[in-house]
């Protein structure tokens, strides 16, 4: 990717983050400052990110499993909040989405392809560090037990962390002052994401994912050596 392409990708990600998290929080506090009622403010703040995500999904013109799942969960949580009619329940709606995602990550650790594998593959498979490995990730999955274990553990790490995040969000929604929860929820999202990214990448480095000479790739080296002989 060129420098211009990287800058455009960064701008798109920044715009997506703002639309999904910063704008709804800013809108919540602006509406509250304008004197709008709590329930209506929460409703508008809930509908906005769901609408943006839905528009983004249709504009992309491709089926993305994670995007479809996220939009579906956002719409369901907003709909349930409308039925419940409780501001506290509406504040906790992100906890249900996060918790369901955590369960999904955990359950996927025992499937044919864990979620950590599926959603990391497009980002890492063609990186330069892997350029000299004469196999794609499907081959690595079939040939390397350590490679399979790495992604199963990675999915489990994400699952456990997201469930912990969900539990904390529920506590915040039902115990803290209402007007403090939206800002703290966004801060928690940023904190959880950073901790997970750092933790999983430290684990991937320690497991040898980025080092072609590591024990993870030893069966490939032995196979190539045997082929030469």
Spell out the key features of this protein:
229 residues; mainly alpha; 10 helices; 79% helix; disordered C terminus
Largest sheet: none
Helix count equals 10
The share of residues in extended strands comes to: under 5%
- Cα radius of gyration in angstroms: 21 Å
Helix residue percentage: over 70%
Number of domains: 2
The number of distinct β-strands equals 0
Would you kindly provide a written description of the structure presented here, covering whatever features stand out?
By secondary structure, the protein is an all-alpha fold. The chain has two domains: 1-84, no CATH class; 87-228, no CATH class. Helices cover 79% and strands 0% of the residues. It contains ten helices and no strands. Helix 8 packs antiparallel against helix 9 (181-207). The longest helix is centred in the first third of the chain and has 31 residues, at 3-33. It starts with a helix and ends with a helix.
């Amino acid at each position: 990717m060129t420098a211009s392409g990287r800058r455009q990708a960064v701008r798109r990600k920044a715009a997506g983050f703002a639309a999904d998290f910063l704008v709804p929080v800013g809108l919540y506090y602006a509406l509250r400052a304008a004197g709008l009622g709590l329930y209506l403010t929460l409703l508008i703040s809930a509908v906005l990110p769901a609408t943006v995500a839905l528009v983004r999904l249709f504009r992309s013109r491709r089926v993305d499993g994670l995007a479809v799942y996220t939009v579906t969960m956002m719409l369901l949580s907003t709909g349930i909040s409308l039925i419940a009619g409780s501001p506290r329940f509406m504040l906790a709606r992100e906890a249900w989405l996060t918790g369901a995602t955590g369960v999904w990550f955990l359950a996927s650790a025992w499937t044919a392809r864990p979620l950590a594998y599926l959603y990391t593959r497009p980002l890492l498979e063609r990186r330069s560090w892997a350029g000299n490995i004469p196999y794609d990730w499907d081959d690595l999955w079939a040939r390397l037990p350590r490679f399979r274990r790495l992604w199963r553990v990675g999915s489990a790490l994400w699952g456990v962390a997201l469930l912990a995040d969900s539990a904390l969000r529920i506590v915040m929604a039902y115990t803290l002052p209402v007007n403090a929860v939206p800002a703290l929820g966004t801060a928690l999202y940023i904190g959880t994401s950073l901790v997970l990214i750092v933790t999983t990448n430290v684990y991937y480095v320690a497991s040898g994912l980025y080092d072609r000479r590591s024990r993870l790739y030893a069966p490939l080296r032995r196979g190539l050596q045997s082929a030469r002989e």
